[in-house]
Amino acid sequence: MKNLFVHHVYFWLKNPGSQEDLAQLLDGLNKLAKVETIQKHHIGVPAATNRDVIERTYAASWLALFDNAADQDSYQVDPIHLKFVEECSHLWSKVVVFDSVDAS
Questions:
Q1: Beta carbons of 6 and 100 less than 8 angstroms apart
Q2: Topology of 18-98 in CATH?
Q3: What is the C-alpha separation between 55 and 65, in angstroms, rounded?
Q4: Structural domain boundaries in the chain
Q5: Is the model's pLDDT at 89 over the cut of 90?
Q6: Interval 95-103 mean pLDDT
Q7: Which residues neighbour 97 within 8 Å (Cβ) at sequence distance 6 or greater?
Q8: What is the rounded CA–CA span in Å between residue 34 and residue 14?
Q9: Using CA atoms, how far apart are residues 53 and 64, in angstroms rounded to an integer?
């Protein structure tokens, strides 16, 4: 898929042991998936794999695929995305974003 834009976000919770906070974040991510410019998405939690190179300290991850950078830009200001940030940002202590585009 030429021009594919990949947006991968990792969330660390303020209360890492709280299943309630995690459930609220996951619910928010499920609502976020309704943004029209998202072509595919994945909501995840750390896998049970355990090697030196694997980062497992995050609570949840959000992967969204867009047809192009313009669609991702639109997502950033979409009311659904803004509402997600408003309703869920109090849950996390840290967010790391990895955005990538085609190398060729």
A1: yes
A2: Alpha-Beta Plaits (3.30.70)
A3: 22
A4: 18-98
A5: yes
A6: 96
A7: 7, 8, 9, 10
A8: 26
A9: 23
Long-range contacts of 41-48 (CB under 8 A, 24+ apart): 41/65
- pLDDT attached to residue 1: 67
Asked whether the CA dihedral 63, 64, 68, 72 is positive or negative, the reply is negative
Q: Which of 62, 63, 57 is nearest to 93 (CA)?
A: 57
Alpha carbon distances (Å) from 70 to 30, 49, 65: 22, 35, 12
CA–CA separation, 63 vs 65, rounded Å?
7
Higher pLDDT, 3 or 65: 65
pLDDT reading at 14 higher than 70: yes
